[in-house]
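Handoff note, outgoing to incoming analyst
You'll be picking up this chain. Sequence as last confirmed:
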Amino acid sequence: MSNGPAGHATRSTIRPNSETGQGPGVRTFLRTADGIAVDSVYDPGPAVYETGPAGVVFVVAHGFTGDVDRPHVRRVARALAAYGAVVTFSFRGHGASGGRSTVGDREVLDLTAAVDWARGFGHARVVTVGFSMGGSVVLRHAALNPGTVDAVVSVSSPARWYYRGTAPMRRLHWLVTRPSGRLVGRYGFRTRIHHRDWDPVPLSPVEAAARLAPVPLLVVHGDSDGYFPLDHPRMLADAAGEAGELWLEPGMGHAENAAGEELLARIGRWARARTGRGTD
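Most recent structure output, in case you need it:
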């Protein structure tokens, strides 16, 4: 694949919008700065809100082993489309996207391509919304690319790397670090995982959160999250200082599957309020 600018569309198809019924959506492969094809979908959102220069667009970053066609990702897109346009995409190594997953490292390039693409539709306000792995990616993207987003929402994100304090995280480390685990990832979860260790180790989520101000950050975490205990979201919110806001959700588990319709609606309203578009 030839090199090109992040966000460049390698192919594009216009299709009826199956999410909101408000007009045509677009599905395309974007090309990242390092040449990976990223399967991406744009939903223009409902006519009741501005979808042009004054409008808000949400860019949704899914969790590890998700992809743009997973039911829980589509459900998030439908919920947020009530408050603006939505871009969803599959991280590298997931679904139809190319490459192999680096479990949150080079995925920041995938999000950069998606944010650039979203801006290209004319939206003045971009809000990134990430879940679990995607929650760490939206933090690092905003920290490493100042001025490119207007608000960040991080749901069920770790605060620090290499955490193994829960059984689900120990299983995830086996999946990522062992050849047999990577085979399970490929054939059981449709996720192709890179075999190389991080070198260098990327900026940690908590270090990224400390760099976001004045960009508003919403940290969302369930008190029944089986992956990351509550010290993780508290560390993120504390690091963000006055720019950070923390929602600890009673009874909520982990990431997209656990995010209910009411929570997603609150996130949509929060994002519009924090980007100056009101709460209507």
